[in-house]
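Objective 1b: paired records.
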Amino acid sequence: MNDVIKEKLKGLTTKSGVYVMHSTNGAVIYVGKAKNLKNRVSQYFNKSAKPIKVSTMVEHIADFEYFITLNERDAFALENNLIKKYKPFYNILLKDDKAYPYIRVTIKDEYPRMEVVRRIKNDGAKYFGPYISSISPYALIKIVNMAFPLRTCKGVLPKNAKRPCLNYSLGLCSAPCAKLISSQDYKKIVYKAMDFLRGNDREIEKILTEKMQKASETENFERALEIRDMLKMVNNLKQKVVADLPIDNSIDAMSYINNGVVGSICVLTIRHGKILGVQTQSVIDASIDEEETLQQYILQYYAKHEKPKELLVNIKMSDDFEDIANLKITCPQKGVKFSLIKTANENAKEYLSKVEYKENIEYDRTVGALEKLKQKLGLSKIPNRIECYDISHISGTNQVASMVVSIAGKPAKSMYRKFKMQNMHGSNDFECLKQTLRRRINELSGEDVSFSQMPDLLVIDGGKGQLSGVCEVLKELNFKVDIISLAKQFEEVFVPHNSQPIMLKRGSSELRVLQNIRDEAHRFAITFHRSLRSKSQIKTPLDEIKGLGKVKKNALLNQFKTFAEIQKASVEELNMVKGIDYNLAVRIKQKCDELKE
């Protein structure tokens, strides 16, 4: 804990609010809320035992700021907005924007129909779902259409009766388009279909069994097999029924567990007495309080998904949060609801065991590799933010440079930047690299989100010579940062004040971090160079004429067809083209005459 943090801790208020943790390079790494800011923030820096994930985050905190709110509801709202804005590494952030499918029944229509949608609207229709995993809403609609003669055509039915389609002849539609059924009778069939979607399987099972037998008796075996598969799916739905739950109940069961480093959350979705799906995902959150972690997840989750009538959780929530989330939240201790939480808990545990293995591998490739780089290269700090630079050109033309950024061992593509070289003559990679670094360093105090962040390590593609040249620029600008160069042929790593290269083990995770960012910088530079080169190749002499834009240039080419014909034209002929005034026509003629010479 540094002196800045010590002083700020003394001045903390006991009011509610939101706190924001910053790393050494100024990046936001965690956002939290508290009823009592002084108590909560102080917990991070006292000497009490903490989970590994919290301790790891605290090691990276160089400063913090806080915002006072009127109440806890405002603190939740502000915390949510700041997390979305900064995307801190140690906060839960749901990246899955997937919208789960629902079955929509247009019950307000004269002749309702069923369709699959991914958004619920307040339009008077009836929605069933969400269908998350093994249950396909398309298959359910197919079953409904096989059992009940509902229309499948889209759009508004014609006012005047028309000839029914083939589905009527096959017994798959009652032909409302031909007015062969009244709206009242048709809606009775719709309500039976909706009864099936609510969980009543008996009638549809009976209808499908009769149709299968009839198809078999008439030797329509293909249809009989199709209906048999549908009956199997209906039977599978019956297996998903949760005993002792009301059939009209709408419940989500959510369980959060963690191992001190990473956590997992499981959500069971129960609709109309059936488990429609199980979702599990891993989360990293450096909150000291597990309740706060689950609260943040709940707010983000139900910002994207339908709210149930009741949410079951494995961690007791405060009464205030129930009002904030606008949800009935229960932490059951016995009965059928407790068994649902127990099921969610078992799924979360199983998923966490898989995540632990993947996380260990990921850790070795990223954060673990950075820790080894610090040790083996003698760096002043763990290189959380690495920047790598590369130059690309052909014989000194279209000279460009790239800046590629890696954060926590992973590419941060939104932070990549590219440079066009200014006032450079001839092929001189050293000078291009120096200009690039000068421009990048001079932008430190600017508004660009990438340039305004300090790197922990600069990586230069090249050997000892390139490293020495860059060190001169850093010294000239009084810019202190760890810097290395990576020579491609033998993958030698050079550091300042050491004439001998450091050889990292081939295939090691720490060497791969450097190779990946070096190769990515090379790719990014070449891509930018090719883009500029292709643009320059399609330019014409007309592009150099002041006041002649794309529209006027096209008007000239439409009139004269080729540049050679434009050269032959007089000022008067050029002036007759739409959009070309006399002064512009004179400039065009002068340019054409210059090119003739």
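Objective 1b, second protein:
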Amino acid sequence: MIDRQTVEKILDAADIVDVVSDYVALKKRGANWVGLCPFHNDRKPSFYVTRTKGFCKCFSCGEGGSPVNFIMKIENMSYPEALRYLAKKYHIEIQEKEITDEERQQQSEQESMFVINEFAMNFFEKQLHESQEGLDIGLSYFRERGFSDESIHNFHLGYSPDKPTALHEAAVKAGYNEELLIKVGLCGKDDRGHWYDKFKGRVIFPIFTKSGKVVAFGGRTLHNHHAKYINSPESAIYHKRKTIYGLAQAKREIAKLDKCFIVEGYADVISMHQAGFKNVIATSGTALTKEHIYTIRNLTNNVTELFDGDEAGIKAAIKGVDMLLKQDLNIKVLVLPSPEDPDSFAQNHSASEITDYINQNEQDFIDFKTDVLLKDCERDPIARAKAIESVLRSVANIPNQITRNVYAQVCVNKFHLSESVIVNQIERYRAQIKEEDWKNEERERKQRELDTKRKAEAATTAVEVSGQGDPLPPPPFDVNIPPASYPQEVPATQPPVPQPAPSFQQQPSAHESALQKCEYEVIQYMVKYGCSFIFEYEQLTVIEWLTKEITDDNHRFTIPLYQKLYKLCQELFSDFTVAFSNFMQSVEEKKHQLYTQEIEQFRSSFEGNVAEIERKEEEAKQSVDAQFENEISEYRQNFIFKHLSSHPDDDVREIVNEICLPKHSLSKIHAEIFSQHMDSQRLLALVSASLFNWKLTIIEIKISQLETELKSATIDRQFEILKKIQELTTYRKELAKLTGERVVNPKNLN
């Protein structure tokens, strides 16, 4: 397990803009960065990244979070894996404590599969460079292919010995799970139950995720085997539809150059990289998929497909064009002279020759498709008409209407047809494409509904078998509130759709809903502003004041997750005092350094009396103090969020990320000024209003319960109930009066 001190170093070092930039092409917009969301099919930039808060968020699908949370989601990693990834990225040495047997059992199977693949990659590399068989066969082959030692190292190429169980024996000796060796596709068993290595006698091409984790392998035989290449099978960590070969090595160059070259195989990528073209990736022999395109589009909109000059290569080029156009990418096609492929072309030409060939022969998709399809069609009107229809259908795939119209005009000039015929045909195809898309979306929606229904049925069965679970903590004022979870958010771009509740779950009453909303508003201020001052003159923070109020009234949050957040905030506040002291020490050093520089610069150029110099020095001091005022305020405000948004508990991270950019309908006073900068006056008004509304709601619930009980109570019990109702009513009036005095009209806060 990673020790806490190391986790703190990782969180401090991780720059959210830097982390997200590995996956998304970001553009500066004001104080934020924006880009296309990597978590859904985003057509307009809706993914915002805020460096000062260390936070990213998609305003369409709602995904995002801290650097840790972002890496967990985009790479499908566990919490420890994401921390290790960031530690490696920022060159932080991980200090781990010995894990217990229980903790070891809790490690995810996926994490174990990545570990086994890492072991296998190291084994193959060692065999390539250190065994005689690897040197004589594997390394000789790579060098014959023209791969340099640097390329062999960068792509972690290896060799699997031509021995039935070399890898299996090494893995078992190292203590790895044999069943997982089967699941990742490294080993297998024959009909007699004997183990064998699937990649034996082959040179190895490791396949990486975007972050550089080994997800699968490709192996090329050097013998007369039936299958020239074999790949790892689909698994919990490897999905061919989502995996792009060479992306880990090419992603930064693609984003930097704003252009991507797509080739077919492993050797094509390596040779192009070696020739100086490091923005090259491959689909590893599989057809281009939507998932591939979404990944590419987050890095660049400019794509050039490189294909062999043979008939198969040309057909593959045509097939992939429409899918790329549909995602609003700028597509060009480059067909290499026969019999060249990208591997041989890169090996046989210099970088300048390759660049010149690309510049001279790169074609727009219409020119390419027209040249290919209209070839030898001049005397066949039917074939010519079909070729033109195919080109127009490609144009119809373009989402942007202006771009579509421009290409329509190109088609008018190229095919010598009237504009009305071209435009009408494109729009007809456009309608067909929309209908096809709608049908596909409906099928996917129904499948999601079916999956949700199955999960609900499974949950119902689980509840019936296991009972109601652990009892909730004692609610305040003996109010009986059913188990609840925090409210679910609805994407901002979609209207809220009422979802029927599962049969095993009761809908909360109006009182319960009001109580949940009040608790949410209280806990959100503790998370967002917990370390900020609510009473500036007393140096009292939001956490300190809320803790005192809640403790004095013996309140508890009825929602377990909120109660957990409350406790976590209190624990973090004890850490904050030490961390803030260290932070202020560094701030004072920076202030002193800046103040000294300004004074020296002023004194060296100013001639005047002592009083004037002293006045200027005082102004400089005030100016320096003002420069760091916002930095200090942001440190206070972001401390709780920074730590909880990277908490190992999934539920904690989710609710904290939601609180940072809430989508719930808050009360009017909170909704109007929630996003404004909070000084102590505003904070006092809002936090106290939320707290008092919570208390009033609890009293209302208690009074309602007592009134219900009164209807069936005995005479003696009725007197007791009426007395309690009177006491609560009196307290409610006093609290309502106090609430009215504390709640400040938002119009008067400016």
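Residues 419-466 form the longest helix (48 residues). The two ends are 49 Å apart (CA to CA).
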